[in-house]
Specification:
Blueprint: H1 3-12, H2 17-21, E1 34-41, H3 52-66, E2 70-73, H4 85-91, E3 98-100, H5 113-120, E4 127-131, E5 134-138, H6 159-170, E6 176-180, H7 195-209, E7 214-219, E8 226-230, E9 233-237, E10 243-245, H8 257-262, E11 269-271, E12 278-283, E13 287-292, E14 323-326
Parallel strand pairs: 1-2, 2-3, 5-6, 6-7, 7-9
Antiparallel strand pairs: 1-12, 4-5, 8-9, 10-11, 12-13, 13-14
Helix pairs in contact: 3-4, 6-7
Pfam families: Metallophos
Protein name: Metallophosphoesterase
Organism: Sphingobacterium kitahiroshimense
């Protein structure tokens, strides 16, 4: 039996799993072996934050110590201009496979998707790959607007990409993890415009196969920290490495006058003191565990500026929560 099929059947088949999945919060005290480990970071925003290299270097150094099966950044990394080459060089210091998701701000300044792909040495604007018996799908929700009725920021997955997605899902029998910059579970909060349609595509595919093939969907973009379960699929938001966006109403200085002058966008954010990221581990028994980093806001914190706690459905927090749950068969 091929290794990936062995892992697939070990995690999602065999005796006892049906009863195990019926009680998703009950876990064995004996820790099983890891089947897959991923380092995940999101929204570095090097073109806004003044210490992007320090933040990214901290992530890469830890990943080289932890040695996950691969790392992935969830978009809004940097624009593809020559002065940002240092960011790509730091990213490439990771001694293992590494992947990119395209963010809406990666094309700021008039760049296109292919320029970003070439600059990052990424695989494509959207693509898929296998790792340790799992199938990964990376989506690009930054395609041109197709509907005149849609007037928001670009967060669209084209009809062509949707067809590719459905075909790609049909071609694998492995458990699937999906990565997309904008949230597919946050329709009203700046997520993917057709998020409900993509979720329906996942649900339809799961129903047709008689098993929950799509297990988890990861997003960045929203600079928040939450986890939703919809029809058995876990939708996990990975908070920004760097800051929470505040906007003009809450404009405030956090850095020295010199730094603020050189970076005009800084007054619109609430920076985190230190970078944050997450490590996802999926164990042989189907348990998924997320270990996130925590820090604090650089003063003044959003609550000190009287920002409503649930202004966008979820609170402003400078951390990624630890989470543990059972993936449904």
């Amino acid at each position: 039996m091929k290794r990936r099929n062995f892992i697939h059947h070990t995690i999602f088949g065999g005796m006892g799993l049906h009863t195990l999945y019926a009680a998703p919060q009950v876990f064995s005290q004996t820790k099983p072996s890891p089947a897959l480990r991923i380092g995940i970071c999101a929204d570095l925003h090097h073109d806004i934050i003044p210490d992007g290299p320090r933040r990214l270097k901290a992530f890469i150094d830890e990943m080289n110590s932890v040695k996950p099966d691969f790392i992935i950044q969830m978009g809004d990394f940097c624009v593809p201009q020559p002065t940002n080459r240092q960011i790509v060089d730091i990213w490439n210091e990771f001694k293992g496979p590494k992947y990119h998701v395209l963010g809406n701000h990666d094309t700021d300044g008039g760049y296109n998707h292919q320029q970003v792909v070439r600059f990052l040495n990424a695989q494509a604007p959207y693509y898929s790959f296998d790792s340790n018996g799992f199938h990964m799908i990376v989506l690009n929700a930054n395609e041109e607007v197709q509907s005149k009725a849609y007037a928001g920021a670009v967060s669209v997955i084209s009809d062509q990409q949707q067809e590719w997605l459905e075909n790609d899902l049909s071609q694998t029998d492995l458990p699937v993890l999906v990565f997309c910059h904008q949230g597919l579970d946050n329709d009203a909060g700046g997520g993917v415009h057709q998020g409900s349609l993509i979720r329906a595509l996942f649900d339809r595919n799961n129903a047709q196969g008689g098993t929950n093939k799509v297990k988890m969907v990861f997003s960045g973009h929203h600079h928040q920290d939450y986890h939703n379960t919809i029809n058995g699929i876990h939708y996990v938001q990975i908070n920004s490495m760097s800051y929470q966006w505040m906007g003009e109403k809450y404009a405030h200085a956090h850095y020295s006058a010199e730094i603020e002058k050189a970076n005009p966008g800084l007054k619109y954010i609430a920076p985190y003191e230190d970078p944050i990221w997450a490590i996802l581990t999926i164990y042989q028994d189907g348990t998924a565990e997320i270990k996130g980093r925590r820090t604090v806001f650089m003063p003044p914190a959003p609550e000190k500026l009287n920002r409503p706690k649930y202004h966008a459905g979820y609170p402003d927090v400078p951390y990624i929560s630890d989470r543990k749950f059972q993936l449904i068969k």
